[in-house]
Write a structure and sequence with these properties.
With 268 residues, the protein is an alpha+beta fold. It is built from four helices and 13 strands.
Length: 268
């Protein structure tokens, strides 16, 4: 009878082990899928306008300024056209004529508290098909907030084309290229730059580099906030803890990974 009981218990234990093993793969799949959802949701922290397969300008407009400034309030404003390319590859175009500087004006979702974009990037593709000369000079980026206007001159002009656009990455932090009010103004301090980003009321990207031409812009990105990475890491930890208790496979994999990291020599 004791032997029969031991055999019965062995069968139950073996059955539980097989059930646990069968649960490992679904648990791992659920874990990976949940982590993917966390990381995808965290990318919402960045703002992206590619205009592809869209029928609107996504709220972008244009503004005009005298070449001598000031660059806080435009002398006039206007619209912008959505240019339909092949396979839904769209961009924004605007023809310009005269000696006023034309800027692409960011919509409201780029404004407000952008504090977490500090030391990140504003990226875009830009071109200006220049029909006539002379070229015009002025700030390439205008950032307004909390009573301060920051301006920046990008060393390289965009391509002379409305088709083959150049790519630009602008760091949102103090540097020798950023100035207060005008391109000859003082360089902003860290505190001033952060103050502007904490309450942005205008973000402008220059489009006209000559008196007569067609300015084009595409693929505008306000870089992801630092919280994107933090959210992914928190999601990893939150999902791993309960699953490690239920899934021996996950526990073994994570344990091996951490032990391998601890045994590696420090370099840096």
């Amino acid at each position: 009878m004791c032997m029969a009981a031991r055999k019965s218990n062995s069968r139950i234990f073996a059955s539980n082990q097989r059930s646990s093993a069968r649960l490992d793969m679904p648990n791992i799949g659920l874990y990976l899928f949940s982590l993917l959802l966390v990381c995808i949701s965290s990318t919402d922290a960045q703002i992206i306008d590619t205009f592809d397969n869209q029928q609107t300008t996504e709220g972008w407009t244009t503004s005009f300024f005298s070449t001598s400034g000031p660059f806080t309030t435009p002398t006039s404003t206007g619209g912008v056209a959505l240019s339909h390319g092949t396979n839904g590859q769209n961009k924004l175009d605007i023809a310009h004529l005269g000696n006023s500087l034309l800027y692409f004006e960011a919509p409201s979702r780029y404004l407000g508290d952008d504090s977490l974009s500090y030391n990140k990037f504003l990226s875009f593709d830009l071109g200006d098909e220049q029909m006539t000369s002379p070229k015009m000079s002025g700030p390439d980026i205008v950032l307004v907030g909390n009573g301060l206007t920051l301006v920046l001159d990008i060393p390289q002009d965009p391509p002379n084309s409305a088709v083959n656009l150049g790519h630009f990455d602008v760091t949102l932090a103090p540097s020798t290229m950023w100035h207060i009010s005008t391109l000859t103004g003082l360089e902003p301090t860290t505190a001033q730059f952060q103050s502007v980003l904490s309450s942005v009321t205008a973000l402008r990207i220059r489009g006209s580099f000559s008196q007569n031409g067609v300015a084009s812009i595409d693929n505008i990105v306000l870089a992801p906030e630092p919280s994107s990475i933090i959210l992914c890491l928190l999601g990893l930890v939150a999902l791993a803890l309960p699953l490690c208790k239920r899934s021996p496979a996950i526990s073994q994999v994570m344990g091996s990974w951490f032990r391998a990291r601890r045994s590696e020599p420090f370099s840096g």
